[in-house]
Specification:
The structure holds two protein chains of two kinds.
Chain A (H helix, E strand, L loop, with lengths): L2 E6 L2 E6 L5 E4 L1 H6 L10 H8 L5 H16 L10 H5 L9 E8 L20 E2 L2 H14 L5 E8 L6 H17 L3 E8 L6 H10 L2 E5 L4 H7 L9 H14 L5 E8 L7 H9 L4 E6 L15 H20 L5 E2 L12 H4 L9 E4 L4 E3 L13 E2 L7 H8 L7 H4 L4 H4 L4 H8 L7 H22 L2
Parallel strand pairs in A: 4-6, 4-12, 6-7, 7-8, 8-9, 9-10, 10-11
Antiparallel strand pairs in A: 1-2, 2-3, 4-5, 12-13, 13-14
Chain B lengths: L3 E5 L2 H4 L32
Classes of the chains: A alpha/beta, B little secondary structure.
InterPro entries (chain A): 4Fe4S-binding_SPASM_dom, Aldolase_TIM, MoaA_NifB_PqqE_Fe-S-bd_CS, rSAM, rSAM_sf, SCIFF_rSAM_maturase, SPASM_CteB-like, Sulphatase_maturase_rSAM
Pfam family, one (chain A): SPASM
GO molecular function, one term (chain A): metal ion binding
Chain lengths: ~450, ~45
């Protein structure tokens, strides 16, 4: 597939998959492209097919412009990257790490992939000793990479906040010694935020991810305490306070998850926007089809309508000067990461790892507890090379379905864990996820294109 | 052009000339974190 075209918000969008070029075209060119196979332009067939709709003169003009773009390698271009990755024998370095600070949680969210925080194992908190070894491990294995990311994750990491602080202070010192720029992110359910830890978080974390599902009715139904009671009214003021402390250059995300219970998640995004949050993410839940909250193929129509509605509302608000960012629509059309990154996938298992409270290393937090994916331990100081290579080679060129997909350079092959969980193979994408991803990329492009019109 | 307005002339292809330093942030797509499409990321080597 060399081009992808679609209509949205009165725009006809054409994406040239391999060059990344994006064109807004009129109806004539949009229709002509149905008759262009690869880069073969046959005027006679086009005029025969569209003569009833457009004048011969207009069709010829359209064809001429299409041919110009083909010549300028902005339409129907070939993939020039495949050889590049096939010949890439460079070593991978670990530059990102998820530290599972607590395999325990004070909530019982109904969609939790981590099985109430313990990842199907025993409830346990990470010790400073393990955290220290994990920092040593990532610094040692980061080779020439200067930027290292450490995610403080759980379960609920604030259940083990003293150790969070100890690990961070250690990491800051070691970062200086080894000339590494270590960036910290904490993901929290916000229940345990207080003045003291908020101040520390604000001071030390590059990013803070705060979980709330949107409307009170949704959050209180899904994100519940052990006794089943809701938490919305407890966490909202805390999240607001934390966000108010984040000044320029200090990131935050107010994030939630949508499920089958709230397929109308547009309302949840709006509820968060109405609270004044400017950085919002509401993401699709990933659960097996037989789970009552799972998203299924038959839900896609409603989900797409929500994304469409959100796109339109965001365009409107941005023009009115009261816009907000929706994480999945943040695409930098003229920049973003280079092609080397786009074809190398998420990095799980070879650039990114997760560490459990016991010090076990897995390709990412989603693989934790799956013994066959255990890469090693922080005490050993290195990881299983064979498994690492499997993940390194789990890129789009080894995923046949991705090679037929126009969105491959926007998505880079999907989530390896989702692929494995649904298809028992990291190379076979999770289909429902693919469909949503493609829809979001379409919306993100239209959002940018509409705002460029101004 | 009369019928076509190009809003991106091929930043992806142009990026082949970048060094591929791999210093950019990790991109995780799973729903428990802020699941990023890789295209969300910022380049560290502009």
């Amino acid at each position: 597939m060399k081009i992808h075209k679609y209509k949205q918000c009165d725009l006809n969008v054409v994406i040239d998959v391999n060059s990344g070029a994006i064109h807004i075209v009129d109806d004539i060119v949009y229709d002509i492209l149905d008759f262009v196979d690869d880069n073969q332009v046959n005027e006679e067939i086009i005029i025969k097919g569209l003569g009833f709709k457009y004048s011969k003169e207009a069709i010829n003009e359209g064809i001429k412009e299409i041919k110009t773009l083909i010549e300028e390698k902005m339409l129907f271009t070939d993939d020039p990257y495949k050889e590049m990755i096939a010949n890439d024998k460079s070593k991978s370095f670990i530059k990102a790490m998820c530290l599972n600070i607590a395999h325990d949680c004070n909530l019982r969210c109904k969609y939790c992939f981590a099985d109430e925080g313990d990842y199907h194992g025993t409830k346990q908190l990470m010790s400073f000793e393990v955290g220290k070894k994990a920092i040593d491990f990532v610094i040692k294995n980061s080779g020439p990479r200067k930027n290292i990311e450490v995610d403080l994750f759980g379960g609920e990491p604030l259940m083990n906040f003293e150790v969070v602080k100890q690990i961070m202070e250690y990491a800051k010192e070691e970062g200086k010694i080894h000339n590494k720029n270590i960036r910290f992110t904490i993901t929290t359910n916000a229940t345990l935020l207080n003045d003291e830890n908020m101040e520390y978080i604000n001071e030390n974390m590059g990013n803070v991810v705060l979980s709330i599902d949107g409307r009170k009715s949704v959050t209180d139904k899904i994100r519940v305490r052990r006794d089943g009671s809701g938490i919305h009214d407890i966490i909202l003021p805390k999240i607001k306070k934390m966000v108010s402390m984040r000044n320029e250059g200090k990131q935050y995300y107010v994030r939630g998850t949508f499920t089958r219970e709230n397929l109308d998640f547009y309302e949840d995004v709006m509820a968060l926007a109405e609270e004044g949050f400017k950085e919002i993410s509401i993401e699709p839940v990933v659960l097996d089809d037989d789970h009552p909250l799972s998203l299924r193929k038959e839900d896609l129509g409603v989900i797409f309508e929500q994304y469409d509605k959100l796109t339109e509302e965001m365009i409107k608000r941005e023009k009115q000067g009261r816009g907000f960012k929706f994480y999945h629509f943040n695409i930098d059309l003229n920049g973003g990461p280079c092609v080397y990154k786009r074809i190398s996938g998420c990095g799980a298992g070879h650039e990114y790892v997760a560490v459990t409270p016991e010090g076990d290393i897995y390709p990412c937090h989603q693989f934790v507890g799956k013994e066959e994916f255990k890469l090693g331990t922080v005490f050993q100081g290195e990881i299983d090379k064979e498994l690492e290579n499997q993940f390194k080679n789990g890129h789009i060129y080894n995923k046949p379905k991705c090679m037929d997909c126009w969105a491959r350079f926007y998505c880079s092959g999907g989530c390896q864990a989702n692929n494995y969980n649904f298809n028992k193979d990291i190379h076979i994408p999770y289909e429902v996820g693919c469909e949503m991803m493609k829809k979001r990329v379409e919306c993100a492009i239209v959002l940018k294109a509409k705002l460029m019109e101004e | 052009m009369k019928h076509i307005r190009t809003i991106n002339s091929g930043a992806l292809k142009a990026s082949i000339n970048k060094p591929g330093c791999k210093e950019c942030a990790n991109s995780c797509q799973s729903a428990c974190k802020t699941s990023a499409t890789v295209a969300n990321l910022a380049c560290e080597n502009k």
